[in-house]
Amino acid sequence: MKAAAAAVQATAPGTPTVGYYNDKCNGSVEGIVRETVKAALNADLTKGAALVRLFFHDCFVRGCDGSVLLDPTYANPYPEKTSGANIGLRGFDVIDAIKANLESACPSTVSCADILAFAARDASGYLSKGGIDYAVPAGRLNGVVSSAADAERNLPGSTFDVATLISNFAAKGFTPEELVIVSGAHSIGRAHCSSFRDRLSSPSGEINPYFRDNILAKDCDAGPADPTVENNIRDQNATALGNLTSYVVPARGGASLDNSYYVNSLNSVVLFHSDWAIVGSNATRRHVHEYADNGTLWNLDFADALVKLAMPPGSTAEIRKTCRATNY
C-alpha cells in the first residue's frame, strides 16, 4: 500500500469528506476530540488500545455508524456490545466524555460515528508518539440498528485460519496485505484467555513452547475465571520471560503501537491462532516480513487502512444526543 490517507476526498454525495467540520463549531471539533482523548490516555494508557479496537468493531459490522455504542434496551436487549465477539470491549466512557464536551460546545452537530473515527486516529497518534497521523474524512450519521448477531457474523475470530481470515476481510473489501496491516494493532492491548486458550495445546511449531507453558498457561491459570494477558510480549512480566527477553522489541521513543507485532509473529510469541495463521501462509507471510523490517512503512499503511476501514459510512439515520441511545 502507498500512503494516501491525507488525500482522501468525497467521491459521491453523502461520502465522508476531510475537513467536514471546519466551518462548524468554530472549527473546534477535532481539537475537542484530541484533547479529550489525550486527557483520557494520560489518566489510563490502556484506553488507547480500547479506542482503536472499538473503532474496528464498529466499522467492521455495519459500516461506521456508531452501532457498537448502543446500550441494551427493552426493545433491543442484545445490541452489538453484548456479543461474545465483543468480549472486553472498552472505551465507551471516553466516547461519552467526548460527546458531552462536543454537545456543550455545539449541540446536535457531531455524530458518534465521527467521534469514534477521530478518537481512533488520535489514540493511534498518541500510542505511536506521532508516527501514525492522517486526515479523517467525516460527515457520517449514526445508525439505529445494533445486533449482537450481526457482530457474531461479521467480526473475525481469534481462532480463524488464514483462508477464513482472508475471506472475512475480502467480504469487506480488504486484501490479504490489508489483513496483515490491520493485525498489527495487536502490538497493543490485552486479551482474555478464552480468546486464545486453544493455543495452550498448540504444537511447538506454532508457538514458542516456553512462551506457551511458562507465560500464557501460568497467566491463564491465575486470578479470575477468564483473566486477561498483554498482547505484546514486551508488556508482560520481565522476570517471567526468562530467555525470551532477547525476543522483546524495544518501544522506540516510547511508542507502543508499532511494528513489533510482526517481529513477535515471526518469533512465534503471539497470542491468537489467527496471529500465527498469517505467518504460516504464503499469501500473507511476505507481508509480515515486510512490516517487521520497516516500521515506518507500517505506520503509513496502517493509517491508510484505518481510513479505508472508515469508508464508506454505515447505515445513516441521525445525530444522537447521547452515543449510548438512539433519539427515539
UniProtKB/TrEMBL annotation:
Residues annotated as the enzyme's active site: 57 (proton acceptor)
Disulfide bonds: 25-106, 59-64, 112-323
InterPro entries tied to this protein: Haem_peroxidase, Haem_peroxidase_sf, Peroxidase_pln, Peroxidases_AS, Peroxidases_heam-ligand_BS, Secretory_peroxidase
Key words of the record: Calcium, Disulfide bond, Glycoprotein, Heme, Hydrogen peroxide, Iron, Metal-binding, Oxidoreductase, Peroxidase, Secreted, Signal
Domain Plant heme peroxidase family profile span(s) in chain numbering: 15-327
Chain ranges passing through the membrane: none
Binding site for heme b: 186
GO annotation (BP), single: response to oxidative stress
Compartment(s): Secreted
Cofactor note text: Binds 1 heme b (iron(II)-protoporphyrin IX) group per subunit. Binds 2 calcium ions per subunit.
Stored Gene3D superfamilies: 1.10.520.10, Peroxidase, domain 2 (1.10.420.10)
Marked site (Transition state stabilizer) residue numbers: 53
Gene Ontology molecular function: heme binding; lactoperoxidase activity; metal ion binding
Cofactor(s) annotated in UniProt: heme b; Ca(2+)
Function: Removal of H(2)O(2), oxidation of toxic reductants, biosynthesis and degradation of lignin, suberization, auxin catabolism, response to environmental stresses such as wounding, pathogen attack and oxidative stress. These functions might be dependent on each isozyme/isoform in each plant tissue.
Annotated family: Belongs to the peroxidase family. Ascorbate peroxidase subfamily.
Name the record gives this protein: Peroxidase
Native organism: Panicum hallii var. hallii
